[in-house]
Amino acid sequence: MLDQIVPYQARLRPDRIAIALPQAEITYARLADDIARMAQALDAAGVAAGQVVLVRDTRPYVHLLCLMALLRIGAASVSEEQQRRSLSAVRPDRVLTEAPATDVGATPQTVTDADWLQGALQAPVVVRDWPHPSDTTLVRLELTSGTTGAAKVLALGHGLCHARLHTMVHLPNPLRMLTTMGLDVTGGLLRTIAVWQRGGTVCFAGALSPGDALHQLRPNMLIMSPVQVAGLLATLPAAYPRDPGLMIALTGAMMPQRLIRQLAARVTDNLVFIYGTTEVWMIAQGTPAMAMAGAAGVVIPGAAVRIVDDAGQPLPAGQVGLVQLRSQEMAQGYRDGTGEEGATGDGTTGDGAFRDGWFRPGDLGHLDAQGLLWVSGRAGEMLNLGGHKVAPFVVEEALMTLDAVADAAAFGLPDAQGLTALHAAVVTQADPAPIAAAFRQTLALPITLHVMDRIPRNAGGKIDRMALMARHGGA
């Protein structure tokens, strides 16, 4: 059971470090006791098995204690560590919040401030029986954009979450992972538990920059999205010695070639590229050479990929079509009440994304003759520029080859004639005019650039193109 992993390690190796923070280290023995105390305190506050509880907390250790305590009690959790987006979609039974919330209406809230925590975490641990979850016990709700960009709620049971612990890339031993995903996403929680399952240490950066966290906490593994890689490279101390033993798993979006080269040169070339979705988990794993060529990777054992046309008919190797995915860790649908149609009767919905045992992520791609998966981009994001179809990533890759561009996101807006025109947001300190001119030499496409301080992204690191279109549509 998920909640028994930490107590097991506490009995086996009580003094081993479970969590490393910039200011402290937490042993497995202390972590196990603090989880037990938190479960007792939440139980006394009225949290019960079967409830859905929203956790709003920016303190990583406290947030994690709440999530693990909810697993112990038998309640399902949904997290808001940095983002405020879950309340209306999830409709929780209770909110745990570090400061009084004014937007929860009549929903009961427990304020887990410093005074409450002092009482909770100084109480003696009382041995008691807690509910034993079945595979179908709801343990986690995850907000995802699904395939349409509209918020949907994915319901994850205990058995599914437990299975996902075992679908991981080859990991260093002993394992010391710096978590960069955050607890807003279930992947951040499950990968933390997976480290503990192996008796490893999870590092939290706290207020440290990514570069300083890598330098000071000395992990041997990171899991990062492209935007996090850019942040790491921008803040890495000049004295940091390149470490070929450090492993970095890259996920969330396609990685620009410039970032791959910089990461290999300055940090490590021990890079693993992962393609998957919240709905199906891991699907393919790739090498740096595959990623530099534009491939997503090799389909992992237990997963399946097929490419179909608009009518759903399978396409031969080498032909680009709609990607469909299947895995042993795949969810079966979205939770009722998220705007989807076709309720299945089991608390999820059987809309077009989940059908006939396959999940449709909305990606375009192909399988080559050797079975390598190539992803061209999002079907709904392809830009039709006067009959010439261009994937946004192709535009972004061209912009990112320019030294003056730190980050980029492409999108389309209607011009005066109502036709789609190419636009891109760029993070740069330079004059955008020479950047646009250099871009046109590469792709021979007219482009309008918008300089921004940062590119809007969701919790998984994917570009929020709808936000860009809304912001710049009237420009």
UniProtKB/TrEMBL annotation:
It holds the Pfam family AMP-binding. Residues 395-462 form the AMP-binding enzyme C-terminal domain. CDD domains: AFD_class_I. GO terms for molecular function: acid-thiol ligase activity. The keyword Electron transport does not apply. It comes from the Bacteria. Residues 9-334 form the AMP-dependent synthetase/ligase domain. InterPro entries: AMP-bd_C, AMP-bd_C_sf, AMP-dep_synth/lig_dom, ANL_N_sf, ATP-dep_AMP-bd_enzyme. Keywords: Ligase. PANTHER family: LONG-CHAIN-FATTY-ACID--COA LIGASE (PTHR43767), NONRIBOSOMAL PEPTIDE SYNTHASE PES1 (EUROFUNG)-RELATED (PTHR43767:SF1). This is Acyl-CoA synthetase (AMP-forming)/AMP-acid ligase II.
